[in-house]
Amino acid sequence: MREAYHVELERLADNLAEMCGMAATAMERATTSLLETNLPLAEQVISDDQKIDDARARCEEQAYALLALQAPVATDLRTVLAAIHAAESLERMGDLALHVARAARRRHPEPVLPAEVAPYFAEMGKLAVRLARQAEDVIHTRDVEAARSLDIADDEMDDIHRHLFTVIMDKNWQHGVAAAVDTTLLGRFYERYGDHAVSVANRMVFVATGKMPGYNSDEL
Amino acid sequence: MREAYHVELERLADNLAEMCGMAATAMERATTSLLETNLPLAEQVISDDQKIDDARARCEEQAYALLALQAPVATDLRTVLAAIHAAESLERMGDLALHVARAARRRHPEPVLPAEVAPYFAEMGKLAVRLARQAEDVIHTRDVEAARSLDIADDEMDDIHRHLFTVIMDKNWQHGVAAAVDTTLLGRFYERYGDHAVSVANRMVFVATGKMPGYNSDEL
């Protein structure tokens, strides 16, 4: 019974790690499609989103099976529930990459972003991909310290996001209201993606160790 | 065993309904603080958000206890998991109301919104509150038809949200970039709130009936 539980939990963790990789690839391509007005790449992100949704459904089914067949309690139970929450966040990260790709498609062949703010999005895109890859590493390595490093990347993301507002709101903004609106929404998509990645990593640590970083498991 | 399960599930449903009411009140007050530049009301929404977070933690603990002590399977298991997801969406609805209240506080004593778009937000605020109250009704009445009525209110919300963009992007927009950015983000908060309310109602139908509206339970 215990052995079957751990084999199944291992499979679930592998699938969550794979979802991290899918979410990272989606945001990497979405960012490229945004910055290089690459329509085929945007279309690919849009059509591939279904695969992330399907992966989430598979993770939930695995989690249901674990709960139904093994009836875990205590930390084991919380671990499976953490996996269910992580899968939900990962699906949402895929949706946010999808929103970026749709913005690129909507304005094609025009660029969505004024050249002035493009470098911020290049950087936020890199941070987003790094965050998703770090979450993937956490699940493979069970490295609690690696989970903490996500906070650093997410803080950088938040700093850029805040700075972006000062650029948009500055009286020297030359690009009009429509570009300001697009920039605002896109900035928010990256910032939310980062938040979800941090949440996934924290839950992954729980899946790997039975403890949430920074908390006693009793507090959860 | 079965009776204890149903008593506990009933308590969990009551707590979720109470969370719906809290999320509705939060958005009602946040909207008033936004439209009437009412700082004390904004502060109240901001400080009350902790109560919604606490209620979510209580719902999760109840769900954990149900799973650990009753080890439900099949539909019963999916019902408890639906409740966990609903609690997460309700906490997020509280966060979105909090964002609205923070915007009102940030610009106080100036209004955040140009008078031209205020009526759209008055309407979106009403729809948001109606959606949360309808979700609350669904859990009390177990009325599957009532859950469908949320789709109508949410479609109205989406229509207003779309129209808002045409107003902001119009060449006659007189209110500058900063107001456009604020209006864009606030519009998104209401639209996301509506999406979460619909998701909650659908999951509430599941908690009440074991079936998701519009799906066979096999598809879930």
TrEMBL record, chains A, B:
Protein purpose: Plays a role in the regulation of phosphate uptake.
Q: Which Pfam families match?
A: PhoU
**Which PANTHER family does the record match to this protein?**
PHOSPHATE-SPECIFIC TRANSPORT SYSTEM ACCESSORY PROTEIN PHOU
Q: Does the keyword Transferase apply?
A: no
Keyword Cytoplasm (UniProt): yes
Q: Which UniProt keywords apply?
A: Cytoplasm, Phosphate transport, Transport
Protein's cellular compartments: Cytoplasm
Listed under subunit, the entry gives: Homodimer.
PhoU domain ranges (all copies): 16-103, 122-203
Name of the molecule in the record? Phosphate-specific transport system accessory protein PhoU
- Gene3D superfamilies, A to Z: Phosphate transport system protein phou homolog 2, domain 2 (1.20.58.220)
The entry sums up its family as follows: Belongs to the PhoU family.
